[in-house]
Structure formats: structure tokens, C-alpha cells
Amino acid sequence: MSKKITILGAGLVGSLLAILLQKRGYQVTVLERRPDMRKLTYSAGKSINLAMSMRGWAGLELAGLRKEIEEIAIPMYGRQIHPISGEPVFQAYGKHEEAIYSVSRGELNRKLMTLAEACGVDIRFEQRVTDVDLPTNTISIEDGDKTLSHSDHDVVMAADGAFSALRNAYLRRDRFSYSQLYIEHGYKELCIPAGPNGEFLLDKQALHIWPRRNFMLIALPNTDATFTCTLFLPFEGEHSFENLKTPEAAKSFFETQFPDALALMPTFLEDFFGNPTSSLVIVKCFPWVYQDKNMLIGDAAHAIVPFYGQGMNCGFEDCNVLMSILDNNPDADWTGILAQYQEARKRNGDAVADLAMLNFVEMRDKVADPEFLRRKQIEKELGLLYPAFFNSVYEMVSFSHTSYHVALHCQKAQDELLGKILAAGDFSANLLREDFKKDLDAWMQAYGEKVKEVA
Amino acid sequence: MSKKITILGAGLVGSLLAILLQKRGYQVTVLERRPDMRKLTYSAGKSINLAMSMRGWAGLELAGLRKEIEEIAIPMYGRQIHPISGEPVFQAYGKHEEAIYSVSRGELNRKLMTLAEACGVDIRFEQRVTDVDLPTNTISIEDGDKTLSHSDHDVVMAADGAFSALRNAYLRRDRFSYSQLYIEHGYKELCIPAGPNGEFLLDKQALHIWPRRNFMLIALPNTDATFTCTLFLPFEGEHSFENLKTPEAAKSFFETQFPDALALMPTFLEDFFGNPTSSLVIVKCFPWVYQDKNMLIGDAAHAIVPFYGQGMNCGFEDCNVLMSILDNNPDADWTGILAQYQEARKRNGDAVADLAMLNFVEMRDKVADPEFLRRKQIEKELGLLYPAFFNSVYEMVSFSHTSYHVALHCQKAQDELLGKILAAGDFSANLLREDFKKDLDAWMQAYGEKVKEVA
After folding, report:
1. Where does a domain end: B337, B360, B383?
2. Does a structural domain hold residue B299?
3. How many CB pairs lie under 8 A apart between chains A and B?
């Protein structure tokens, strides 16, 4: 049985993967490009908060970390929508008070690293991997002027993120399909501090959104009663970062678009001009694995935009699925294991990328639309009327283990179903009519057939 | 005025571009990875013949090479469709005996290089470019064990094909969107020799197709009375290269699928197992240019599949468009010139990639469908009835200078128009009815409006 595994990257996915493998008896080495973040003060200014949901919790559960993280996680039960003027509106995520959880990326990462080391994992910092020779599985590492070679392993697993070194080596394989698509929007982190008595200045149990059609501001709560805010805005065009180059322009833009948020941001100008404007990339590729030698996991295999909060959740699910496959292959035939892993996850990686983009449109545009709110309400009622049968796509993604590719498929089927229901007029009134209930049963039947096709 | 230009690649596009620039007074150096092909016997086995059409001729015209190439070009007036059994069927490409021209890639490339040198271009062979430093425009060249630097130029133009070194450097730019997609099909070159008296064994004035739904064989004539055949087949699956690994399997497959072609291939087994199986990639990217420093052109900017015969034609059109922009910018503001070039060509590069894939489906599948043949006939009649107004998409692409993105847009509008006409029944009979002619006028009007929107 192969025993030695090298993981590239000690981020969230790399660290969790290291824990899970070491616990299964493998001897795991992790190569991390950056210095040990536990020895640094946390560098803010470029990290969207995590929104932990069911798949993420399942990964932590397997690592035995669930309880510890629950203590530093803040439940968000829904979206708090902030119009330009008027009162905010709350939309619950689930029909049974389900929540997604705001977690500090840095804190979670540090805890995962510490647990990995406690399990016996050897994490080596400041190891910049420059290349991987595929057939020999030899890793080249930049060390000052020298290049070191590392090949003391049976399998290499690359959890080194959206700009993976192993994936760069895959680019030289024949028939490696690859795309990196930058969306037109960038993002910038801003901050709402705690109130004078250490209190939260917005509802702490919600994810706050200021939807403005083609752009938006969001805010997630932190345990210290601050909110991390993120502005998502096109790089170019009428409303764009390009047009916010002076303090006057930035301030006037926020005064017009986000007056209530601006009022809570005493360090707005310092943050806006001190923090970087970062780009957002979607990466899809195939294959994800090479023979019995190495594989991609997490963002390295499927970098996605952050709008569904599923990047880490999906990466953790990759780890869990890989563990199940390992457990079912006690003789460790790595060619078969890697092929099964790819077969199980590739279409889900593609699907979650598409779901994340769809959710961007929903967050920045649709949530402000009364028709959309009506639809959300009907979705909830359908879930109660047909509990064994109907879940909204949001619930499937965040509060279930339904495959992402099934959820994406259901999105289309639900659009069709809800289209019919909305076209028929007032849903509550219709429900009193026997003929409508018959139609509804038939529509639900047709929807169920469509879902079955793919599930 | 900037005077020195370095071109990467002495292929068809690089060589033509060198000629056109040198003629305009620039001092052009070309760096070519391979040895001088004029000093080698031509290495066969991996080159789909060229199908020169109007855009290609326009490039040669500008270089002053049109007449010389016409002498070695064989006109193909249409497709000769070979069913599994029964007689072949001829489908003309145009309504006025227009042709596309089979040209030897090697011969054309040699003539272009020789003309470039005669104009004063410095072509340097066996110069493998490994990297380009974008801000300094410095090219790294591998020379044995050493790496040389080359930066004696104002602008670098990369015509170095589907695996461009400059484009690889662009991959490290922030916000560089990029995709390389390998299609499921590969290709393999085969040969039909001349007959015993040096005669062509198939009609020489046609492009021969053996359409078999998900795969196909094609054959193009050469001046020595041979035909270059290319098999396009999936790598994996029921009918696939994977399943043709033994002489028995390959022969039996051809006996079943292409009996008439096999009968003309005395060296079938040598060719099939001696020639490589090559993959087919589609590359799209953005941006195509970097400041006033460097740019991508031809396959380096937009590698496409060969099914429309437009790869070289599009690359030559890139060159022609760039020349017009240069002629309109006598003060050579390169930032502006490169931006204009990108603006003019990017959407056309994307569109021709999509058109080429659509034409693959047409060639391997639709041409065997009687309904499709009926449609082609009606397209021709529409072109005669509305000569100032209607051209088939094939005619736009091959026999006009209509922008590719307009042609792609028209494809959808024509699908709609022809759908209506076909649904109305027998076209010739309908044309005798006044009410149908009125409908037709209205449909054509609607079609014209749609075309105008984009053109």
C-alpha cells in the first residue's frame, strides 16, 4: 500500500485533506508557498469571509473540528436587503430556520494547520513550487537561488488554489482542456466597525446585501462585532472602479448608492484607497488527474466566484468524497482511485461554478425585484406542500448534500415550474381551487420526472 | 516613427505579415523555431491541406503573390458526398461557380518565406522562444544550453501558432481570460495516390466528404494528382481511434464505412499506423495586445478547428486589417494601433471559431440529410430571387469579405427564415402562389432587419 502523500498548499482544503489522510495512516507532507500565517498578524484587506454551510460542516465533522469551529461561527438565517432608500427587508434562506455561518478564513485556517501538525503532518512553509514533472512526480521548489527537487512520495495532491503549479504543468499535456475566465467585476474589502459599546451596528444574524443591478455591496458579521464589507463592481464602464479614482468620486458614489452603509464606515476612504482591487476568475479544466501519480483538488481543479459561498464548501466535499473512495479501495490502486475521484467530482466542479455565477445575478439584481420575492415565497410553500419532493435550489446547495450538478439541473426545471405557477396568478388564492390543485399536482409530477432523469 | 518589428513564427501568417510590413518600410526580423523547411524534404503525415478562399486571396494580392499561387491552386467547386453505398452526390458551393482552392501548405509557406527574404526580411531559424518579458518586450531564446535575449525592436507580433510563446507570457497577466478546448475528435492523414497513367482517381474539382454522422473522411486534390485524405474520428467511444489499434480493426472499419475510398488506398495500413493521430484545439483569449509593445495574430490569437478551411484565411485577413489600420495612422501611435486592431478582430476570431465547429457538424452529419439538401437548394434560389439581399452563410464566409461575426449572426437569422420556408412545403410550387410570395417578402424583410442590427 502506498503510504506517502505530498500535498501542495496549506490553505483550507490542503490542511483539511492532510488531516483526513494522516488520520487514515498516510504519511503526509504539505508544501506551502507562504510563511506560517500563525506567526504573522493576519493581513486583512483581501479575503471575503467564509459562509460555511452543510458540505463544509461535513468536512469539519470528519476532521473532528466541528464543535470547535461552531463556537466561532455566526449563523446567518437569511439575507437582509438594503434598498437605496426605505427600510431593509429580511428574506430567510430556509423554511426551517436553517443558517449559513460566517467564519473567519484566517482563524479556521490556523486551527486546521495546528490540528494537522498535531496529527503528525509535516507542513513546510516558504516552499514555492515552480513545476511538477508529471511522469516522475518530481516537484521543483524554489529556495532562494537554488531549485530543490522533492519526490519522496507516492502521490501528489495539488490544493494550491486558483493558480495551481500542478495545473500549470498539466497545461503542457496534450488534450488538456482549460479555461480561465475573468469576470468583468472586481472586488474591494471595506469595514464596518463595532459600535461604541462593542455592539453590532447591523443585524448580526443576516448576510447584508445592497443590490444595485450590475453591482452590489455585501456585509458579513465577525465575532468581534465588526462587519467585513465587500464591494463588487465592474472594472470599467459607467459605474466602475475605473471611475472611482479620487476620494471625491468614491465618496459621492457611496453617498448616492449606499448612504446607510457609508454612515457606518468611519474609515471608508482609508479602506477604499488602502485596500487592493482584486479580480475574480473562474477556472475549469479536464482531466483533473494524471495516471496514478497526481491530482487537482479544490480551487486548483475548479476556481469559482464567491457568490454562493461554496468555494470552501465544495473543496471540503472533494476531500470527503475522496475519503469515501479511499475507504472503498483498501488495496490502494491509485489509478482507479484517481479516476473514480475525477468521475465523481468533475461535473460537480463545473456545476458549482455555474451556480455561483447564477447566484451573483440573483444577489446583485433579482433580490430587489418584487416578482422574485413572490417566487421565493412560493418556493417555500411548495417545500411545505410537497416536503418529500421539492426543495429550492438554494436549499439543495446550502442545506443538503445533493450533488451540485443535480442542483444546477433542477434550477432549469424549477424555472419552468415556477414560471407556470406565477403565470397562473395569486398562488394562495389558487390553492383554494380544486382545478388549480390538480394542475399543480401534474406540474409537480412533470418536475419530478425531470429531476429523476439526472439524479 | 517606430521602425523595427520582430515577428515570432515564419508560418503562413508570420511570413505574409513580414512581407507586408517590410514593404511598408519597417525593418522586420522573424524568429522561427524550426529549421528552414526549404532545405528539408517536406515532412508529410500531419497537415490538412489548405482551402484558400476570398480572404486568403486578398492577403496574397496585397503581397503580390496571387498570380503565382493561382498556378498551383486547384479549384474545388463544391462538395462530392460519398454515401456508404450508392453513387456520390455533388453539391456546388456557390450559385455562380465560385470555388475554394486546394493549396499545398508547404509550397505556399516556402514561397512566402522566399519573397519575404527577397523584400529584405531577416528570417532566423531554429530560434526557440521560451518567454517574453512584457514590460521590456525582451524575448528569451533557447540556443543550446544558453538563453539569449532579443529586444532590438519597437513592437513584437506573435504569429507563432496555437501554442504561442507570447500568449503563454500573457497567461501570467492579471485578468487575461483564456481557454483551450480540445474537441473529442482527432485526425489522421491518409493518401490516395495518382492512377496508373498519372490521372486523378476522384473528381479533382471537388472537396470529397464521406459523412458518417459523428465522424468523417475527407479528401482534397493535389497538383500531382494525388489526394490528401483526413479521417476525423473521436479518440474514445464506439467508433474511435482507441478501437482501431490493430490492422484488422482498422481495415474492417474502413471496409464497412469507406469501402470506395479504401479501394483507392494501396498504402492504407502503412499510412494509418505510420502517421500520427493528432488532436484538435480551439483557443480563445483576451486581450490580444499589451500596451504599445506586443500583440497576437493568427492562430496565436484564435486557434480554430479546420472544418471551414478558414484558419489561414482568417489569419491573412488579420494581416490585411492591421495594414489598413497602419495606413490610417501615419504617426504610428502603437497603443492606438494595437487597440484598434484588437477591437476590429477579437469578435471575428471568436466568431470564426464557432463557425468552424458548426461546419464540422454540417460536413460530417447534415450533408447526408435530404432535408439539408433541400435547404441548400432553397438558399441558392433565395440568393437569385433577392440578389442584393441574401447570401448563404457559406458564401459569406468563403466568397465575401463580410465580417465573420456578422456571418455567425446571420446563421441564426437564416435558420429561422429557412425554418419558415421549409415548414410551408414545396418551395417551387409555393413560389407560384401570390399569397406565399407576400409572406416570403415579409419574412425576407424581417431577416434583413435582423442582419442590419449587427452589420
Report:
1. B360
2. yes
3. 32
Best mutation site among B130, B178, B240 for testing chain A: the one with the most A CBs within 10 Å? B178
The string of pLDDT tens digits covering residues B321-338 is 999 999 999 887 999 999
Listed in sequence order, the DSSP H helices in B24-104 are 54-63, 66-70
Residue numbers in A near B178 (CB within 8 A):
178-180
Residue B448 lies in a domain: yes
Strand, helix or coil for residue A24: coil
Do B201 and B195 contact (CB within 8 A), yes or no? yes
Residues A291 and A440 occupy one common structural domain: no
B357, B282 contact by CB (below 8 A)? yes
- CA B448 to chain A, closest CA, distance in angstroms equals 31
Please work out, in degrees rounded to the nearest 5, the angle formed at the alpha carbon of residue A360 by the alpha carbons of A357 and A364: 155
Tell me, what's the pLDDT at A189? 95
Q: Which residue has the cell 463592481?
A: A233
Check pLDDT > 90 for residue B143.
no
Strand ranges (E), B127-226: 128-133, 138-143, 146-150, 155-158, 177-192, 206-211, 216-221
- How many domains would you assign to chain A? 2
Q: Mind telling me how many Å the CA of B234 is from chain A's nearest CA?
A: 12
Contact B29, B4 (CB under 8 A): yes
**Between A175, A179, A235, which is nearest B179 by CB?**
A179
Report chain B residues touching chain A, CB-CB < 8 A: 171, 174-182, 235, 279
DSSP string, A223-271: TTS-EEEEEEEESSSSSSGGG--SHHHHHHHHHHH-HHHHTT-TTHHHH
CB contact under 8 A, A178 and B178: yes
User: Cβ(A306)–Cβ(A356) under 8 Å?
Assistant: yes
Question: Is the Cβ pair B180, A181 closer than 8 Å?
Answer: no
pLDDT tier for residue B115 given thresholds of 50, 70 and 90: very high
- Taking any CB pair shorter than 8 Å as contact, residues of chain A touching chain B are 171, 174-182, 235, 279
In Å, how far is B178's CA from the nearest CA of chain A?
A: 5
Cβ <8 Å between B179 and A181:
yes
pLDDT for res B1: 54
Q: Is A222 helix (H, G, I), strand (E, B) or coil?
A: coil
The mean of the pLDDT values for chain A is 94
Among candidates A178, A181, A182 on the partner chain, residue whose Cβ is nearest the Cβ of B180: A178
Q: Using a CB-CB distance cutoff of 8 angstroms, which residues of chain B are in contact with residue A181?
A: 177, 179
B336 and B386 within one domain: no
**For residue range B36-52, what is the model confidence (pLDDT) as tens digits?**
999 987 554 446 689 99
pLDDT of B82 over the 70 cut: yes
| Partner residue opposite B279 with nearest CB, options A174, A182, A235 | A174
Q: Could you say which of A328, A360, A392 is where a domain stops?
A: A360
From A177, A182, A279, residue closest to B181, measured CB to CB = A177
Q: Please tell me whether residue A420 adopts helix, strand or coil conformation.
A: helix
CA distance B46 to chain A (A): 16
**Residue A282: CB partners within 8 Å, gap ≥ 6?**
A179, A180, A181, A183, A303, A304, A305, A353, A356, A357
Residue B438 cell numbers, joined: 407576400
Q: Which domain holds residue B412?
A: 369-454
Q: Which helix (H) or strand (E) holds B301?
A: helix B299-302
